[in-house]
Amino acid sequence: MEYLVQLVISGLAIGAIYGLIAMGFAVIYKSTGLVNFAQGEMTMIVAYVAWTISTSISGNVFVVAFGAILAAILLGLVIERIVIRPMLGEPVFATVMVTIGLAVILRSSINFIWDAYPHGLDLGVGRDIIRFGNIGVRTGQIAVIATLLFLLAAIWAFFRYSKFGIAMRAVAADDRTALLMGISATRVHAIAWAASSVIAGIAGVFFAISYDISPAMFQLGLKAFPATILGGLDAILGSGLGGLLIGITENLAGGYLGSGMKEVAGFVMIVVVLMIRPFGIFGERDIERV
Amino acid sequence: MLKYLTTVSLLLAGAYLTGSHALAAEQGLTDTEIVIGDVEPLTGPPALLGVAASIGHKMAIAETNNAGGINGRKIRYVLEDDGYVTARTIQGARKVIDVDKAFAMLGISGSGQSIAVMPVLEKAGIPTVINVAPVKFLWEPPRKNVFVVGQSYEEGIIQLVTYLAEKNPGKKWGLITQDDDYGITVRDGFDTVVKAKKLNVVYSGNYKKGQQDFSSDMLQLKQSGAEVFLAGGIIGENIAMMKELEKLNIKPVVGIFWPGRVEPVLKLMGPPADGIYAVDYVEPFAGPAGKAFLEKAKGLLSEGEMKGINRYSMTGYAAAKVLIAAIQRCGKEPTWACTIAELEKTKNVETGVMAPISFGPGIRFSDQKLHIMQAEFSTLSFKPVN
User: Fold this and answer.
1) What's the average model confidence in pLDDT over B255-282?
2) In a 3-state reduction of DSSP, which class is residue A212?
3) Fewer CB within 10 A of the terminal residue: chain B, N end or C end?
């Protein structure tokens, strides 16, 4: 039983990171109809910025958090304005290719701006181990699960009750009609990119605290993408929960079926779920697959 | 007058022929310059080894150029980035050989990349010294123009596991490897000792390249009761494994392999890194040879390059020294044939960073002596134990 509990807890912790990045995918898709293949790279860049702030300005957790969020907002806005907005009206395939190109550029920038060595993000918090009997959990892992749950609730409330959240839903449902109602689609897109960058950045920072930062970190995006497909590409909350499901499934498969099954299990789950629900567990509408 | 003109004409013709012969004889040579090419991963995670190896090459080249170059010719170093993508390695090698007209090559990228680029090197016939990822395919069978400085991955693992087995008799063993050619080599070396020493292996895992969370793998290791653990990751993987072991509150005897034996890793692993074993054929930086290397580097490299130094810089430095010495021995007009012949004659060349290097007729592998080392967390260093 202890073995199972430990597997589930570890699965929830890594799944929460996948879930946050997956929510970033869904925020952009829901608002713009675009799959951003640079999501993992954006996660990595924000984590590197957080590490730079911690080593060159201040290691205070609040300073780093504020700086990282600010950097994430800027990153999202800059990408949307310079790279994505000029592609408005172009075929979806071309825009998706642009995000793939962006991913390669961001990935390469790590070596140009920083270096190839792994680094630890030491903020004095998140690395302590709390033990419940023989079960050990890092405080950072507890924090990332709590953050995911908080964001799930906050985003639900945002889309349900806030004016701007309703505007975003309107643009997602029918951008032409939304435009006729006086909603600026470009503004909605910009905010979506900034929000997506912040959510992914939070995941990156938590991952860096629990593990480390390295140029391989972008691969988190590859793990989070199945989570958003599983939850539903247009379902922000579903994507978050999809991350948790993928994390737990991977860990249980790795723990009971062997290491080799760990990476496969999530994809097997996706294949099965998509055969039953082609739009994901929580997906609601017809999704154009690319 | 006619006699004078004839003499001048003959002299000019002779000078032209001699000059054109020198130019036509070998590429990458001018009166003042000699080109040495290299292809390394300079971007992406493997840049950790590619950048460091190129820094070692640069260091040996700067040292030679400061001393007047190779028989008066300054070395120009042409470095291409392959991003650890095999197709780009081949493309980069072709560019360095055909466009930059390199006289000789150093490097080259990872094991898979070196293997893939071998036909290009063989066909060109360019003198090449490989130092980054020594795998048997590179020297078995021996290729005329390709020399390898280092030790085989398999032999490294055999010596590490043998040492740990003798130090921990009767203990239960665990192993995890990556699912690629590197992992297969590590596993082959491990299995050799398992059979020879009849080791009791209670856990054997195989992770997918790129895996970052090892919680279930290390939990399985704990369940198995393994007391000695060979962590077959490279850099980030080994760090993640050690952090999981700390979380699970278990402290097996841990061995890691040289691709991950870089000092910053110890800091990231934290206190659990104390006492882990490693194997390598280059000197540890904490020893007198390592300290001397770093001291020498200060005068030859920029501040940024100094930060990129790791064990691969030592392998790069040693390979470049061997190649430069061979070209130097060919005198004023070096040729590929002479350089290859001189490389073959390399005998006990001291580089200060590893045991003396030797090749021989039909021997293209330097077969370096290995050391077992142990990590000391308080000083973030590795110290030899044998």
Assistant:
1) 90
2) coil
3) N
**Cβ distance B315 to B201 under 8 Å?**
no
Can you say how many angstroms the Cα of residue A37 is from the centroid of all Cα atoms in its chain?
11
- Domain B13-151+289-368 top-level CATH class: alpha beta
Q: How many Å apart are CA B82 and CA B113, to the nearest integer?
A: 9
Backbone phi, then psi, for B333, in 5-degree steps? -120, 75
When the pLDDT of each residue in chain B is averaged and rounded to a whole number, the result is 91
Q: Measure the N-to-C terminal CA separation of chain B; round to a whole number of Å.
A: 79
Question: Domain spanning B154-280: which superfamily?
Answer: Response regulator (3.40.50.2300)
Residue A280 falls in which region: left (phi positive, over 0), alpha (psi -120 to 50) or beta: left
The shortest C-alpha distance from A18 to chain B (Å) reads 11
Chain B interface mutation, best of A119, A138, A212, highest count of B Cβ atoms under 10 Å: A212
A278: its two tokens: 């082609």
Cα torsion A146, A150, A156, A158: sign:
negative
Q: Which of A134, A215, A253 lies at the smallest CB-CB distance from B44? A: A215
Is cis: bond before B158, omega within 30 of 0?
Answer: no
Parent domain of A54 = 2-217
Contact B249 A118 (CB under 8 A): no
Which residues, in sequence order, are CB contacts of A154 under 8 Å at separation 6+?
A: none
Where do you find CATH 3.40.50.2300 in chain B? 13-151+289-368, 154-280
DSSP structure class, residue B30 = -
pLDDT on residue A52: 96
Pairing of strands B277-280, B371-376: antiparallel
Helices marked H in A127-235: 139-161, 163-173, 175-180, 185-210, 219-231
Q: Has residue A18 been placed in a domain?
A: yes
CA distances from B158 to A41, A177, B164 (A): 38, 70, 10
Residue type, B102: A
Asked if A250 reaches chain B (Cβ–Cβ under 8 Å), the answer is yes
Total domains in chain A come to 1
A74 phi/psi in degrees, rounded to 5: -60, -45
| Amino acid in position A146 | A
**Which of A217, A204, A37 has its CA nearest to residue A116?**
A217
- Asked whether the predicted pLDDT for residue B211 surpasses 90, the reply is no
Instruction: Give a yes or no: residue A279 inside a domain.
Output: no
C-alpha B204, offset from chain centre:
28
| A191 is a domain residue | yes
- 3-class DSSP state for residue B300? coil
pLDDT tens digits, one per residue of B330-371: 999 999 999 999 999 999 999 999 999 999 999 999 999 999
For residue range B30-73, what is the model confidence (pLDDT) as tens digits? Answer: 999 999 999 999 987 788 889 999 999 999 999 999 999 999 99
CB within 8 Å of B4: residues ≥ 6 apart: none
Tell me which residue has tokens 């030859």.
Answer: B300
Alpha-carbon distance of B34 to B36, in angstroms, equals 7
Q: Could B206 and A260 be called an inter-chain contact, meaning their C-beta atoms sit closer than 8 Å? A: yes
Question: Quick check: is A212 in a domain?
Answer: yes
pLDDT at position B105 over 70: yes
Residues of A in contact with B43 (CB under 8 A): 107-108, 110-112, 215
Pairing of strands B200-207, B172-178: parallel
Q: How far is B276 from chain A (nearest CA, A)?
A: 19
Structure tokens of B322?
């061997």
